[in-house]
Each structure stands twice: as structure tokens, then as C-alpha cells.
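Schema walk-through. Below, the input block comes first and the output block second. Nothing else is stored per chain. Lengths vary across the set, and this one has 552 residues.
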Amino acid sequence: MLDRALVDGLFPADLPEPAELEERYPPRALADGALVTRFGPSPTGFVHIGGLYTAMVSRDLAHSTDGVYVLRIEDTDQSREVEGADAQFTRAFDAFDLVPDEGDTALPAPRGEYGPYHQSQRAAIYQTYVRELMRQGTAYPDFATKEELAQISDAQRTLKLPTGYYGRWAPWRDASPEDVRAALDAGKPWVARFRSEGKVGERFAFTDRLRGRVEMEDNHNDVVILKTSESPVRLPTYHFAHAVDDHLMRTNLVVRTEEWLSSVPTHRQLFAALGFEPVDYAHLAPLMKQEGGSKRKLSKRKDAEAAVDYYLEAGFPVPAVQYYLRGLANPRLAEVPLAEALATPLRLDEFGLAGPLVDTVKLSDISADHIATLPGPEVLAGVRAWAAEYDPEVVKVLDANPELALAAIDVERVGVENPRKDLAKWSDFREAYGFFFPELFTDVTDPGDERFGELDASLVRTVAADLADTYTHEGDQPTWFQQIRDLATRHGFAPNPKTYKKDPDAYPGMLRDAANVARVAITGAQRSPDLYEVTRALGADEVVRRLRAVTG
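--- output ---
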């Protein structure tokens, strides 16, 4: 064991003592049963939808128990930090209503008495506890080089032993003070390692709040807890930061994915060595994707829908995404109305142990159903808010034509039992409703366009010209459509499929083919909302203008 003077000389002289930190971060004054949860994203890439899912669960469990939800940025791996990641967190958490109760990202200003909430700003705190473990002999400086560590691993593999830094394979574990002093005098860089009391082959068990009793191999490795002294700022590893931060921030439930299950033995050893009350864990199954006949984890590298920005850029309404994610967490909630599901607290005992499948087709269906229930002004507001970020041209069009925009949105949505579901996401607006706006609509000018089917181009031109010349805008739907019937009759179209099938050579087509000329000219598509209602929104002048565009 190293003497105190040698240990203290390894650290800045102005570090606080553990007792000072305990006083600075006292236990929270919360009711019994209140949960303090945290979400700890790392700014090393885009925000994964699985992270949003975990954050949602953490926040819900805290708020449903009158607890506290904390956002902590785990940025100790600064070599992999991606510029702009904090801004991405802000965008994601704001958009999906996951603004934390405490934290200094996604907030107008830092909030909370248990910060700083960036781990890179807590270096002195970590060093205080590393120093304390060294004083107690449960941590030590390790000067082994990368080459020496590789040689140890090679020797262990040759002997068919578990690889790692432990027991007799940890040369600095029981080094004398003289050897440590000599290494320091020689300027050798060092890391701090935790002196594990675990033995190879020993078992460890704990109770997971979601999974029940979990048993696995105990940790026997002397894990690194403080990174190399060559770094300008001495930062901890994830394992050590987790133990210190969750204790001082008074977290009592850590929600994270099952990939961290194997770390629990190490974390429990660190909590015990530091004299901290251990936290509870709830390890979620990861989000999955169906690929052929098998399932795999949703991948940052392979799957566009893994990124939260995918959902923002597509413009899925936030309540639809929230509802979908809550249904993945507690399947019962997928069977109740959206408003009820959003208001119902999540229950840990209703989570499954198999990874839920992310299905964007299902999400689109949910989203379309949700949008179909919204009044026109809310749909317009949703589209405009999305377009302000991702499609400025649409914003200009909506602002210039607000009445037309509402009229377009209301076509086959108001006063009907089964409203149209053209919009599954806000980005669908341009394709589904763009034809209503002259600024977004491309006139159909070629009578030979394939959208007119197999009709002769000259006939298409003649039919469009005739309808433009005789067009009547007034009247109810049957009255209005009668002019299409009359048009078809004048140009020799069969009145119905039965008549046409009796002698197809006698007709250029059927009534529906004549109607299709009008539909394509007016909407640019072979399928559209009810053409009568479309013309009500467009007005007579615009209808005629589009018909004449086909005639050249």
C-alpha cells in the first residue's frame, strides 16, 4: 500500500475531500418511492432512436413517481466527440418533449443543484474519489505500456487463461512504493486501476427491476478508473464516472440497455469500495429490426431509421412517435387511444425481455390515423412548422395561400366517416397536396403523357379543350359530374365497363378514361381526392387554365 504523501502527490493539491462533496450534493428531499433517473448520452455520433426510447422511459418513471429526471452528458471520451452533438441533443429532446428536470443541454440555461452535468467538467470530483481509493489501497497507479499489456494478453491466450489485468498478471498491483516512485521520477505515464477482490470463475447475482434475478460471472479484472496522465485533463472511464455521478446526483434507478448487463459486477464492486449505496438497474431490451427471417439490433451504421433526425426530417408528428414508442415499451398501450396511452404511466413489469421491433410502416399507419383526427388548422400548423425547417418553399406557398391550404386539407376530411389519410408525416404534404397550389404544381402540357393511359394524344387534346370550353363550375357533385358524362358521350366513350367489353373496338375507352383526362390535367395524377371537391378548392379559373395547358 502506498503512503498518503505519495498518493496525494499524484493529484492536484486543491482537490476537495469526499466529505465536502457529500455536503455539496446532499440526499434529495423527495417522498418515499420517488425515482431519480438519468439519461447519459455520449456526444460521439447522432442521437439513436434507442436513446430517445431510453430517455422516454427514464423520464416517465421519474415523473410518474414525483421524482426527478436528469440529463447528464457523458463526454469523457473526448477523442471521439462529434462537433455539434450537444445541439443535436437539444433538437431531439426539445422536439420529443424530453426536456429534463436537471441538466445543461436542451435547456434555456443550466438548471439543477447537482451539476455540472457534463462529465468533462467534473474532473476534480472524480480525482477526489480516485485519490481516496488509492489512500485506502483499493486503487493503484499502473505504468504498464500498450506493448506490455499486449504481451500479457498473448501469454494468457497461450495458457488458455482468461485475458485481462488481474492477480499475477497485474504487475503494478502490488508494486512497492520505491518502484512507483522510480517510475514517476522517470516520467512514465500512468493510469489508475481499481483493485478488484473478485476471483476468476466466481459468480455474481443481483436483482434487476425489469428482469428479476440475474446471475453472471463476477468481475476479476483491475479495471482502469482514471485515464492516462498524458491527457491534459484527467478524466475517468465510464465505469468509475457512473458510480461517482449516480451517487452524488442521488440517482436511485438507472435505466439502460442490456448491453450494460455485463458491467454490473464491476459497477457494484466500485460502489462498495467507495462506500456508496448501490443503485437499482432496469436493463431494457434493445430496439430491433426485422431482416428477412431474423431479427437484429437497429444499427447506426445500416439503418436510416436508427437516427432521431430521420423522424424529424420526415416530419412524423411527435404524439404519433411518442405513442408508438410507448407501445413498444408496454404493448398494452398500443391497444388504447393515443391520448390515453400518452397519459398512462409506463410499468416496468409490462416490459418484454425480447427486443421490440421498429417498424416504420406501422409508425406511418399510426401517424396517418393520428393526423386524420386533427382539425385542418392543426394539420396546417404542423406542416408549416416542419416546412420552416426543411422545405422553405412550402412555407412561402402556405403563407401566401392560407385559405386555399385549409380548403385543400379539408377535402374528404370534414363531414365524412372515413377521412382521407394522405398524410402519414408532414413531408408528405408536397406530394399529397402540392397540386392544389399553382406555385407547386407542374402543368401537364403533353397530351401524350403516359398518365393519360393509352388514349390517343389528339383525343386527349380534344377532350381537354372541349371541357375547358364548356366547363360549368356551379352545382352539387352529381350535377357537376354530369358534364363529364356528357363530355364522354360526345367523344364516343363507352358509358360503363360492361358496354365497353361487349365491343371494345367501337370505343376509344370508357367513361372513367374520359374522367381521367380531366383528373390528370387538373391534379397531375391518375388518383386523387374527389375531383369535384378539388375543383371547389381550386376555383373555376384555375381549373380551366390547367385544362387549356394540355391543349397547347
